[in-house]
Design a protein that fits this description.
Blueprint (H helix, E strand, L loop, with lengths): L27 H19 L7 H23 L6 H19 L1 H11 L7 H7 L1 H4 L6 H12 L7 E4 L5 E2 L3 E8 L4 E7 L3 H15 L15 H12 L5 H17 L5 E2 L3 E6 L3 E5 L4 E2 L3 H6 L4 H19 L1 E3 L7 E3 L5 E3 L5 E3 L2 H16 L2 H10 L9 H8 L13 H17 L6 H20 L5 H24 L11 H7 L10 H20 L1
Helix pairs in contact: 1-9, 1-10, 2-3, 3-4, 3-5, 4-5, 8-9, 12-13, 12-17, 12-18, 13-14, 13-18, 14-15, 16-20
Family: Belongs to the protein kinase superfamily. ADCK protein kinase family.
InterPro entries: ABC1_dom, Kinase-like_dom_sf, UbiB_kinase
Amino acid sequence: MTSSPDLSWGNFSESGPWVLDRDTIAWSEVAITLRAAAQKEVPTLIRARRLPPLGRLSRVVVRFGWALLPWFIQKKRKKFATPEESRAYVSVRLRLAIESLGATYIKLAQIISSGEGLFPTELVDEFKKCRDQVPPQPWDTVRTIVEQDLGSRLEDTFASFEHTSLAAASIAQVHRATLLTGEDVVVKVQRAEVSQLVRRDLRVMAWIAPFMIGRIKVAALANPPALVELFAETIVEELDFRMEASNMVDVSVMLHDLNQDSYLVPRPHPTLVKRRILVMERLQGFNFDDVEGMQAAGIDTEQVIKAGMISFMEGALIHGIFHGDLHGGNLFVLSDGRTALLDFGIVGRLNTKRRLAFMKLMLGATTNDLHSQVAALRDLGALPTDTDIDAVIRDLGLDQPTIDPTDLNGEELVAEVQRIVKALLAYGAKLPKELMLYVKNMVFLDGAIARLAPDLDIIGELTNISFTFMQRHGARISQELGVDLESVEIDMGSLKAGLGVDESTESMTYRQLQQRRDLIQKRMRDHITN
């Protein structure tokens, strides 16, 4: 079988239903203009207003009030046998309220669902249902949107089009279909009026956010108005599928240039991509959470994780681009062990300054250079430009011996977290969009290791990744950062400190790490409850 010509520049399947020519793709150039326009719109959407859209604000308040009031009453009356039962109850009610409010809030739930370890397990598990189990829009609506954007009858393009959606999420749903020319495809169809709804919701969120400063513990560091801005920057680019198709091509090029053969991207159709519909080739594989199915098929799930850990780091540091919304519904594993990436509505893009800052952060972590790491975070926008780096290191105690959190009781753990948050707030710390997306992806991969490779040696694997990265890109790092790599020594002290273990620790499986985390979280919960 002859390989497809577009494999010379992109990571796609060996013999796709069509061949992409980058010079003739109808939607390619307009996507650049659309992306710039979307980001230019963000300040307008989130600017301070005397009044929000009152009708929408009322509906949001009523829905969340209805979800929380019964839980609050039962909690006060001590109706729940355990804290876990209480969290499970309120998580279900919140999920139902979010689904009724539509795309914007469902997208927020999806982001939370990727935060395993950051948010309560019950909330994460319930919000995972918002990834692809959202009630779909009716077939008549789907047909109308497809025909409006194509400018012709559905039968003029498709030989068949399944009425039941394959999956439905916040912004869109997907359907299996077959083109008149015989190719099996997947069609992504945007929800009706979602573009207007998202913009109204962003105005509501921007109006509410200032009142939430200091009132929500989980948002204390991020700053609610800044969170709304980040969310707006992210979601506005999802409202035109021509940008998403362009992202698919750009990520595929990046994977090819980095020789990341373990990952591929489905081909978007060269002409059947419009504002609200995206036709792409149909690929089949295992759900990313189907560990038993993959292992029964002879797939090395540990290798799947290892490939992902270095792939996403290389994309950000070397090309300044990476998939920005990893979760179990956005990837699946083919029978040959390769992973297909899906849903490119959110893609992280780093300008040269921030890409080099990411590279400096990685190098500093690899060499245990605290000053370089904090300076890199400043250059990424996480700290103000005039931040005193040495003062940050001193105030956070980064230059002090590592404290093993498992040696602390609940009160001490809570106090330590509060101390760090207070110090960061004093310096004006925030979470830039690109860093937020990258951290969110790392949180997802962390959770994926628990399922696919629980016995992976975390310290050993990250050490191996550091060596591999230096071997592949040492010359480029040396040139761009002005570093003499001959004098660089790998020192995983920063990593070990981040894990809460001393430098004498040589290895730690993910299973052992999770046991430590569970112990820490239990002590903190017990202290807060008491």
